[in-house]
Structure formats: structure tokens, C-alpha cells
Description:
Helix content is 42%, strand content 17%. The chain has 161 residues and is an alpha/beta fold. Helix 4 (92-100) links the parallel strand 3 (83-88) and strand 4 (105-110). Helix 1 (6-27) runs parallel beside helix 5. It is globular and about 45 Å long. The N and C termini lie far apart (46 Å). The mean pLDDT is 95.
Amino acid sequence: MILKSPEYLIHRKWMTHALELARVAGDAGEVPVGAVIVDTDNQLIAVGENRKERDQDPTAHAEIMAIRAASQILQSWRLHQCTLYVTLEPCPMCAGAIVHGRLGKLIYGVDDTKTGAIRTVINIPDHPVSNHHLKVLGGILESECRELLQGWFASQRQYKR
């Protein structure tokens, strides 16, 4: 039997919450991505889910929605004490917002082989022009995150036929 560290179990807990938000987004016709922001005491600060279609806003990605909410709740754009959990590796826009928001840590589920801007396609946080380098951990509940996205896209292709 493999024992999981307390830190890993916390990561699973918050990624599970982000997956629940992603499912809500998918059920609403959005690409199913969810995000959760917690503080250093692992208290929930803010959540977000993709809302591009519902809001007709190209910036309404789950990460952006959560970052906006956390900044309002904390009354600060500096989120260095926060951890962002998101089901899919952030795109360049979201990676930029994460860096500019000075988030302390990013935990994501599955790599995005098309637009991933954290580790997969490009690496914005570790680029020399980045003014903030954050801690990153990918692969938490990776299979579940991948299956949700792949299933949603398959159903969209089927629906369009």
C-alpha cells in the first residue's frame, strides 16, 4: 500500500474541487476548466470556471475569474500568499496574469500540448523577462483532468455531426 503525503492529499482535495467547477463549466457549454485559490492556511479564497461563452468575454478563463475574485476578496492584486489550483495548464494570457498577480504557487492537472505556457509549449514563469518566478507542480489528478477534457471535446465533435 502506497501512503500519500499530507501535502499530496491537500493537493488532491483542491484539485477535486477544481474538477467539480470544470464539470459545471462543461455542462454550461464551456471548455471544462476549473480553478481554485487557497491561502497559506489552505482556506478557500476564490473559485473560477471558464465563462467565455456565457459572458462573451475572451478573457473569462477559469484562472482569470479566480484571480479577479481573490484580488477583490483580499483587497490586493499581490497574491503571493496564495496557491492556484487549475485543471489544465494555463495559456499565455493566464500565465501572464499568474505572474503579474505574484501568486505563490501553481498546481495544475494536465499539460496543454497546444497552448500550455507554464511548462509544455513555452515557459513564461521561468523566462528571463518574467519579474516573478513561482513554484509549479503539474500532474495532480492528471488522468481525471484529461478524461474530462477529452470526453467533453469528443461530445462536442459528436454534437456537431
